[in-house]
Design goal:
elongated, alpha+beta, Protein Transport Mog1p, Chain A, 6 helices, 7-stranded antiparallel beta sheet, 18 strands, 2 domains
């Protein structure tokens, strides 16, 4: 290998460390390491999220389910967005001098897309496209000051080139806040919470639940608030998640099973709802561990009806990365 090729490989490795993967509700891309999701709303059909850097909002994405036979042109998505935006600011009697500086066509995740460069209170890029495989219309906005554009160009190109808005695989990635997990596409996200004290995701398919939760600052929590991770599970995780499902479970806390998850020692609690007929009972299985790398307490819980454990549960647990 020639010396200049070696330098290219080294520099590429350095660039990768500046970015991290992000995936939420069937859309994936790479963002700078210090960017994080700050707001989210909606559902898999119609939703929105915003990603901020350490100081300000940077990126917003909105999507809407649109049947293939009504698929809009990418440019039309932005034109409709701008028309609605102008109506809103006019109604609020807000004056904003918004100008379209340039328009160009590009490719996003294999789809025809449009990019509008806007100047207003600040500069922004609007990128839109339609994904016929997921039947979704997307619009992305990236905001910045005029003086920042040259600096952000590389970041913007990396985001756009890394976007995946459809997956052929059965399992869909969810990647944010330092963890990764892959969930079968037929599961719906029915509950979520993100706070500094406790966060969780609750996925459901009929009588099956997959609940993943964690608390940061594990060292402080275990020193000042909870005796151990078992105490955290019973007094925080349980109350915030399992209790809300509405079913009662009898859990065996004595002599829990032990296993290894992501190279961490973990304990397993098993439980079941009351009843005599096993095929009608709900069965619970919770995996708990402490990740010293992220300084977090984690819990992965599955709930299912009947004695036969759904085959996908083990695949989901294997996909889970806590650091």
């Amino acid at each position: 290998m020639k010396l200049n090729e070696i330098y290219k490989v080294i520099n590429k490795g350095k660039d990768l460390k500046k970015y991290k993967e992000f995936a939420w509700r069937k859309i994936y891309f790479q963002i700078p390491a210090d960017w994080n999701m700050a707001l989210e709303s909606g559902s898999s059909k119609n939703g929105y999220f915003r990603v901020d850097d350490r100081y300000r909002p940077r990126l917003e994405i909105k999507w809407e389910n649109i049947p293939f036979e009504k698929a809009p042109q990418s440019r039309k998505i932005i034109e409709n967005f701008l028309e609605d935006f102008k109506k809103k600011i006019k109604k609020r009697k807000i004056k904003i001098d918004l100008k379209v500086v340039s328009i160009r066509e590009l490719n996003v995740s294999g789809h025809e897309a449009s990019l509008f460069y806007l100047k207003g209170v600040e500069d922004s890029l609007l990128i839109s496209w339609y994904c016929e495989k997921e039947e979704r219309g997307y619009i992305m906005q990236i905001s910045f000051k005029s003086s920042e554009y040259n600096e952000l160009k590389k970041i913007i190109n990396n985001i756009l080139s890394s976007i995946r808005c459809h997956f052929n695989e059965e399992y869909i990635p969810w990647i944010l806040y330092g963890f990764k997990i892959k969930i079968p596409r037929e599961y719906e996200l029915i509950g979520r919470k993100f706070t500094s004290g406790f966060s969780y995701l609750d996925f459901q398919k009929k009588n099956f639940h997959i609940i993943f939760g964690y608390s940061s600052m594990a060292n402080i929590l275990l020193e000042e608030y909870y005796k151990d991770i078992s105490d955290w599970y019973r007094n925080l995780f349980w109350k915030e998640t399992i209790k809300k499902i509405g079913s009662k479970f009898k859990v065996k806390y004595e002599k829990p099973e032990k296993t290894i998850i992501n190279q961490h020692e973990a304990i397993i609690f098993n439980g079941a709802s009351p009843g005599f007929l096993k095929r009608f009972k709900l069965y619970l299985r919770s995996f708990l561990w402490k990740c010293d790398i992220e300084n977090r307490i984690y819990c992965f819980t599955t709930i299912h009806k009947g004695i036969e454990t759904p085959k996908e549960f083990s695949s989901i647990l294997i996909s889970l990365k806590c650091h």
